[in-house]
Known about the structure:
By secondary structure, this protein is α+β, with helices and mostly antiparallel strands. Among the domains are: 96-214, Uridine Diphospho-n-acetylenolpyruvylglucosamine Reductase, domain 3 (2-Layer Sandwich), CATH 3.30.465; 218-335, Alpha-Beta Plaits (2-Layer Sandwich), CATH 3.30.70.2190; 336-420, 2-Layer Sandwich (Alpha-Beta Plaits), CATH 3.30.70.2740. The protein contains 16 helices and 19 strands. Strands 12, 13, 14, 15, 16, 17, 18 and 19 form an eight-stranded antiparallel beta sheet that branches. The chain has a five-stranded antiparallel beta sheet with strand order 5-6-10-8-9. A hairpin with a 4-residue loop joins strand 5 and strand 6. The site of flavin-adenine dinucleotide has 37 residues, from strand 3, helix 5 and strand 10.
Amino acid sequence: xxxxxxxxxxxxxxxxxxxxxxxxxxxxxxxxxxxxxxxxxxxxxxxxxxxxxxxxxxxxxxxxxxxxxxxxxxxxxxxxxxxxxxxxxxxxxxxxxxxxxxxxxxxxxxxxxxxxxxxxxxxxxxxxxxxxxxxxxxxxxxxxxxxxxxxxxxxxxxxxxxxxxxxxxxxxxxxxxxxxxxxxxxxxxxxxxxxxxxxxxxxxxxxxxxxxxxxxxxxxxxxxxxxxxxxxxxxxxxxxxxxxxxxxxxxxxxxxxxxxxxxxxxxxxxxxxxxxxxxxxxxxxxxxxxxxxxxxxxxxxxxxxxxxxxxxxxxxxxxxxxxxxxxxxxxxxxxxxxxxxxxxxxxxxxxxxxxxxxxxxxxxxxxxxxxxxxxxxxxxxxxxxxxxxxxxxxxxxxxxxxxxxxxxxxxxxxxxxxxxxxxxxxxxxxxxxxxxxxxxxxxxxxxxxxxxxxxxxxxxxxxxxxxxxxxx
Length: 472
Ligand code: FAD
């Protein structure tokens, strides 16, 4: 191993091979539920250096864990406990390489922080729409590695739909230059889509060419109280009809989730909390290419129809950008409020939108029956059929003991319900090291066989993020 560390030091410079001292920031996952031990954290500064690091590791038979901002929620970016893995941090590959305004593309290196990618697009008067609460620290490499979703998927799609090309270092240390930025390219198998969402198990993304969009002339946000999940789905249908491509966000939040925000962030005023008859609220965003007046008129027409339909009990439309940000801030504070409340079990699931009301009715009742006192923190991207269907430990219970005794059972109940309603046990957070058993259980054998064949073909040595997505 000394030889490998020497080679790595010679490759990237001694200052960028961290093998001693406190490596917690790289070894522990964001939720602090997994802590590993790395042989070293290596921070290359260019694609050529990434390739050289991978070649050195391949030669030594040492496995590699690619890491961006380490904000992933499926334990995919931290090393195992063996002390033998190299964490390959992309943080220093953070250049904006090119912007092509006519082609509506931006080419950035993998370690670029998402917020900086958005800013680079805005500086050119354009929009890069990927947006999520971790955008101040997650990287575009990690976003593509996990095929991240976020709050704008209903209009712009997941990270996959926003990417036109990749540059990738293969497990053999070769560089695939695939940054053409073409909107049409039917020249054989789609290698780009193979790497997106592969969670660092097939290669290291070093750069990406991303799609840009015109910035909307105006963007409006509304907050609506709805009498049921079924009504929320009806409101979504009306929003599609009235706003068309203007509908850029559609989030649902359960009353208990919002009550946690009101409890732990009392400085935030959560609309309609005083109304006991409101089980869910919805946050809608309408981006308009004409003007604010046009956006407001369309929103008003939508809400009028929704009131008549009965799927909305009450609603407010933000009067200013500050108010709109305030409403989004409430939505984005739910995970933090949940953490303040104590330990919890997270599920990131998707179900066909039409089946979400029945899924919630069935699963809410099942959990209440099987696990008395259970508290559901249900919220998420309803416009994409994606719920964060989380379980808070019963009030006053010993949370650690609850998790020890009940987590597997709770996961089993929720994932069986998801399968029953034709859904997926991971919608946007990936499989990582956390849901490998679920992948084996819920993917059909034919699909699993193809996945294993791809892994074996691209990484026969099994050095890229082993044990993540697929078992070793
Ligand atoms: P990391 O955590 O470092 O890595 C994630 C995975 O990608 C790992 O498997 C890693 O090996 C791999 N990887 C990283 N970089 C590369 C690379 N260059 N090449 C190949 N593989 C790589 N996700 C959503 O989809 N939607 C949300 O709304 C959302 N909200 C979030 C809110 C919060 C507060 C937090 C903490 C997370 C949230 N996430 C969300 C999780 C999300 O996956 C990450 O925030 C983000 O996409 C990961 O980026 P990262 O740079 O931190 O990647």
